[in-house]
């Protein structure tokens, strides 16, 4: 016996219809590359999205065609977010921080036919454009400076009337695609459906997820070219939240100015951004009024305890989220359950420091070397997930079977444990966990503790090949301005918290830590920089097995 409910399609056009009916006047605020702020509304953005559809159809774009964007966060990019999927085409956001060779590979692999590009990014775009057979290039803010053979965005959409959104789209059709950052090989394509985006947007608005409300003004510092800006453009559209789009100015003062002026209530970004913002806020706490801010969400990397406590001094709640490009990206949120709200401070912080509990419809399990492990908070293994907005395969990839289990779960590559309440603690990435003498050392745990030291700004820990112990930890440390760190004091800082054999065998001090295109520590690059470090130390008869080697980068 089947249910007798309507077969209502969960699509982006359906979300847009709701926005136009219930919150057409809600504000969209975008700061351009020139620093000027542009104010518009959902009504105007969706009308312009329909004009974009008309323009793209005139250029020959058909359902299923991929339309690439190479843009910062602004209202034209938002129009592409809504318009391209609503005509049955596929939005493909290109990461502006990737190397030209990688971008050419990604655009070719995806089969992009049209590109929408910011004028300020044209020099970067030209480095790979000749290697990709784009049929058309559309330049945002091109104006009179639009290069020959390209289309100015405003001129193009002004020449076309509003085309209707396609209400015949099947919810399982592709809506958008994004490629992983490719830190362990070629980037892989994740293809989001209309259905997955709609359900993910609903989840972001759940009370206990505590992310998106109709009353919110949301600042997405996370780029729109990274995992659909964490799904915020679609969730805000569905629930009626205002959006604040920062453009390319992502320095701390520019972000704080925007948060104050627009009375931002929710801000979302990676920890590295919030570290810089906290430093600016600490330096001049009276300069900015952030009293409207109810929540700062941080994800993409482990959030140091010191960062959350730092914002607590200013009365700002920082909440961790966990996810991946493959999970759309929200997988879990560190929202306290009702029985934790009255718990002792230490217990509450233990849960705030976790990756949280899986959001509704995302299921989790941990697989150890001998099978699935108990949810006791201690047993570790690889985290596996499944759900309606979790990737079930990579686009056009024949070598991704090892990322999916035989029964259809996605293998995240994260080493984790789960406690009896269902809270996930990420111990490390599988490729970053340090295997020393047959035992595991968590690089993330060491990093978080190092960053609690008052003189440390940032720290990354990697495992390097060791002639006796297989691998041993090396810590790359950046000191706070005007501060000095020594290997001896950092070891003393770590010792009360970890076994002696966890202690880094060496500390390197530098002015910056290499990062990936999405702002995470680039541990592959660090390992390459220090390849052979302990082997050379052993050859030079240095006591690298049990003592710290203090080498300062010039």
What does this structure look like?
- The protein has 554 residues and is α/β, with parallel strands linked by helices.
- The chain has two domains: 12-418, Rossmann fold, CATH 3.40.50; 434-552, GMP Synthetase, Chain A, domain 3 (2-Layer Sandwich), CATH 3.30.300.30.
- It has a 14-stranded mixed beta sheet with strand order 2-1-11-10-12-13-14-15-16-21-20-19-17-18. It has a seven-stranded mixed beta sheet with strand order 7-6-5-3-4-8-9. A four-stranded mixed beta sheet has the order 24-25-26-27, with helices on both faces.
- A hairpin with a 3-residue loop joins strand 24 (456-466) and strand 25.
- The radius of gyration is 24 Å and the shape is globular.
- The N and C termini lie far apart (73 Å).
- The model is unreliable at 541-554 (pLDDT under 50).
Q: How are the elements arranged and paired?
A:
Elements: H1 12-22, E1 27-31, E2 37-41, H2 42-58, E3 66-70, H3 75-86, E4 90-93, H4 100-110, E5 112-118, H5 122-129, E6 136-140, E7 151-152, H6 153-158, E8 174-179, E9 189-193, H7 194-204, E10 217-220, H8 227-230, H9 232-239, E11 242-245, H10 252-261, E12 266-269, H11 271-283, E13 295-298, H12 305-312, E14 318-323, E15 330-333, H13 345-352, E16 356-358, E17 363-368, E18 371-372, E19 381-386, E20 410-418, E21 423-429, E22 434-436, E23 439-441, H14 443-450, E24 456-466, E25 470-479, H15 487-494, E26 506-509, H16 523-529, H17 533-539, E27 549-552
Parallel strand pairs: 1-11, 3-4, 3-5, 4-8, 5-6, 6-7, 10-11, 10-12, 12-13, 13-14, 25-26, 26-27
Antiparallel strand pairs: 1-2, 8-9, 14-15, 15-16, 16-21, 17-18, 17-19, 19-20, 20-21, 22-23, 24-25
Helix pairs in contact: 1-9, 2-3, 4-5, 7-9, 10-11
């Amino acid at each position: 016996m089947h249910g007798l409910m309507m077969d209502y399609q969960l699509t982006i056009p359906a979300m847009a219809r709701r926005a136009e009916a219930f919150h057409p006047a809600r504000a969209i605020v975008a700061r351009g590359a020139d620093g000027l702020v542009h104010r518009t509304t959902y009504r105007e953005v969706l009308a312009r999205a329909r004009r974009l559809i008309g323009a793209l159809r005139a250029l020959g774009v058909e359902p299923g065609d991929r339309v690439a964007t190479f843009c910062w966060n602004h209202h034209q990019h938002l129009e592409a977010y809504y318009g391209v999927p609503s005509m049955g085409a596929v939005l493909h956001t290109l990461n502006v921080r990737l190397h030209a060779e990688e971008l050419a590979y990604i655009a070719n692999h995806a089969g992009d036919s049209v590109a929408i590009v910011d004028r300020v990014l044209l020099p970067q775009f030209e480095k790979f454009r000749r290697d990709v057979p784009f049929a058309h290039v559309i330049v945002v803010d091109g104006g009179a400076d639009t290069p020959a053979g390209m289309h100015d965005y405003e001129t193009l959409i002004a020449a076309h009337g509003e085309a209707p959104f396609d209400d015949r789209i099947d919810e399982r059709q592709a809506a958008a695609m994004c490629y992983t950052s490719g830190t362990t090989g070629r980037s892989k394509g994740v293809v989001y459906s209309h259905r997955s985006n709609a359900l993910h947007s609903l989840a972001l608005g759940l009370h206990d997820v505590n992310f998106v409300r109709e009353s919110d003004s949301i600042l997405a510092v996370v780029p729109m070219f990274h995992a659909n800006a964490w799904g915020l453009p679609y969730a805000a559209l569905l629930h009626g939240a205002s959006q604040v789009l920062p453009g390319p100015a992502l320095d701390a003062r520019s972000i704080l100015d925007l948060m104050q002026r627009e009375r931002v209530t929710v801000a979302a970004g990676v920890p590295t951004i919030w570290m810089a913002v906290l430093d600016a806020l600490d330096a001049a706490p009276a300069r900015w009024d952030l009293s409207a801010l109810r929540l700062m969400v941080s994800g993409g990397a482990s959030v140091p305890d010191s960062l959350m406590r730092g914002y607590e001094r200013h009365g700002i709640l920082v909440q961790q989220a966990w996810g991946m490009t493959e999970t759309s990206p929200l997988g879990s949120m560190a929202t306290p359950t009702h029985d934790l709200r009255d718990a002792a401070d230490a217990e509450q912080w233990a849960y705030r420091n976790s990756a949280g509990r899986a959001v509704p419809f995302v299921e989790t399990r941990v697989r150890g070397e001998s099978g699935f492990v108990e949810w006791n908070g201690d047993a570790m293994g690889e985290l596996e997930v499944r759900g309606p907005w979790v990737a079930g395969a990579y686009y056009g990839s024949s070598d991704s079977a090892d990322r999916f289990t035989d029964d259809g779960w996605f293998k995240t590559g994260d080493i984790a444990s789960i406690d009896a309440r269902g809270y996930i603690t990420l111990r490390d990435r599988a490729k970053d966990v340090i295997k020393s003498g047959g035992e595991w050392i968590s690089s993330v745990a060491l990093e978080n503790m190092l960053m609690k030291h008052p003189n440390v700004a940032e720290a990354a820990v990697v495992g390097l090949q060791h002639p006796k112990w297989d691998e041993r930890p090396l810590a790359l440390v950046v000191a706070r301005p005007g501060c000095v760190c020594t290997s001896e004091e950092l070891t003393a800082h770590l010792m009360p918290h970890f076994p002696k054999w966890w202690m880094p065998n060496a500390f390197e001090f530098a002015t910056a830590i290499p990062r990936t295109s999405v702002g995470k520590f680039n541990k592959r690059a660090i390992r390459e920089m220090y390849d052979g470090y302990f082997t050379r130390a052993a050859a030079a008869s240095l006591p690298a097995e049990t003592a710290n080697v203090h080498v300062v980068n010039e």
